[in-house]
Every structure is written in structure tokens, then in C-alpha cells.
Amino acid sequence: MTELGAFLLSLVPLLALLVFLLLGRYPGCDAIVRLGDRLAASAASKPKAAARVRLPLPPRSFAPGGGLLLALGIAQRPPPLVAPA
Predict the structure, then answer these.
(1) Rg over CA atoms, the chain
(2) What distance in Å separates the CA atoms of residue 71 and residue 69, rounded to the nearest whole number?
(3) What global pTM score does this model have?
(4) Are 26 and 20 in contact (CB under 8 A)?
């Protein structure tokens, strides 16, 4: 009986959500609207992008990096010396 009780207990939130949706209530809808209003109000109070000063970008480096650096390092290595027999 405990397995059936645990199974039914895990179905309670799903059934409650299904009942709310069938009755036309959408849980969390008001919270989403409030969050959107709050984000819109904070975006309106921030300074405009034109008023901000942009710093110049650093110069682009054309040096190889990562896997290409390893590949170039291996490719420029001479073949191993052959020991005299």
C-alpha cells in the first residue's frame, strides 16, 4: 500500500495544475506580469546607450593560439635523429 500511496502523492501537484488549467486559471501568470513590469521600469530608469562612453577595443592579435599553436609547434620540429647502428 505504501508504493501506491507514494505514487498518488507524487501525482497531487500534477492533478492540481490540471484542475487550475481546466478552470481557466493560469498559475504564475500574475507573477510573470509583475516581473515584466518591474524589468520595464528598471530599463526606463537606466541611462540611454548613447550617453555611455564606449572604450576603444584592443587591437586584434593574429598570433596562433590553442590547437593551432600546438599543431604549428609539432609541425616545425625536425624528425628524430637516427642512432648509428
Answers:
(1) 32
(2) 5
(3) 0.38
(4) yes
Alpha carbons within 13 angstroms on the beta-carbon side of residue 45 total: 6
Query: How many whole angstroms separate alpha carbon 44 and alpha carbon 21?
Result: 34
Task: Indicate the DSSP class of residue 50.
Answer: G
Q: Which residues contact 27 (CB under 8 A, 6 or more apart)?
A: 17, 20
Question: What is the maximum alpha-carbon separation in the chain?
Answer: 91
- 3-class state of residue 19 by DSSP: helix
Give the Å distances, CA to CA, from 71 to 61, 75, 77, 80, 81.
18, 6, 10, 17, 21
**pLDDT 10s digits, 21-72:** 899 888 888 888 999 999 888 877 766 655 667 888 888 877 777 888 888 7
